[in-house]
Amino acid sequence: MSTVKKLRFAVTIGALALTAAHLAWPGVRIDAITFALLVVAVLPWIAPLVKSVELPGGLKIELQELRQVESRANTAGLLAVEAAPAEESRFAFETVAAQDPNLALAGLRIEIEKRLLALARTHDLNSGRPMGIGQLLRVLTLADVLSGEERSVLADMTNMLNAAVHGADVRRDAADWAIGVGPRLLTSLEERIAEAPGVNPCPHTN
């Protein structure tokens, strides 16, 4: 039995046990603070099962999605080695992250799409018709410019960034993630563009 299935069984059994205890001792009350502390205690064990949890008071905790896709991107070789911090931000999304996390993630998505388009052009894969990220990833994979795993990672990452474009609740830590990981990803894509024979590298865009 997989770890996730075991966790699901444990959570279900625990919930049933609490239900039975409530029926046996209906007079016992659990206040909001106690409940919140119980949720915090359980979260590390059920993190693989959930994406986010709402605690009393409306505080939203994002769980692992961005870091998981970052780990996959690193394993797939999509992240350049982290360079020393530049005096000025290279990308527009870095400059707005503190003020508007949604705009930062949306900006990173746009920068990824620009470089995927440039990568397709360097390999003569541009059909002349507008292509979205999904189409770009498909043609780049069919041409063996991207591996299947690279395509999967980029698709998952851009799907998450799309949620920011459509107004999802984006916390500051997600914007901080974009500042840390985004430039490494874009640099890696630019390096691949520059390595294509006989084609000028993609200019930096802000």
Explain the layout of strands and helices:
Elements: H1 3-24, H2 32-46, E1 52-54, E2 60-62, H3 65-75, H4 92-96, H5 101-122, H6 133-142, H7 148-165, H8 172-195
Antiparallel strand pairs: 1-2
Helix pairs in contact: 3-7, 3-8, 5-6, 5-7, 5-8, 6-7
What report would you give on this structure?
This protein has 206 residues and is an all-alpha fold. The chain folds into 2 domains: 1-63, no CATH class; 64-206, no CATH class. It is 62% helix and 3% strand. The protein has helices at 3-24, 32-46, 65-75, 92-96, 101-122, 133-142, 148-165, 172-195; strands spanning 52-54, 60-62. The chain has a two-stranded antiparallel ribbon. α5 packs parallel to α6 (133-142). The termini are far apart.
**Which oligomeric state applies?**
single chain
DSSP strand (E) fraction? under 5%
Global geometry: elongated
Count of individual domains: 2
Percent in helix: 55-70%
Number of helices: 8
Radius of gyration: 22 Å
Q: Averaged pLDDT, please?
A: 75
* Sheet having the most strands: 2 strands, antiparallel
Order of helices and strands: HHEEHHHHHH
Ranges where pLDDT stays below 50 over 5 or more residues in a row are: 55-61, 201-206
Strand order of the largest sheet: 1-2
Beta strands, count: 2
What structural category arises from helix and sheet content? mainly alpha
| Euclidean distance between termini CA atoms | 49 Å
Notable features of this structure?
2 domains; disordered C terminus; mainly alpha; elongated; two-stranded antiparallel ribbon; 206 residues; 3% strand; 8 helices
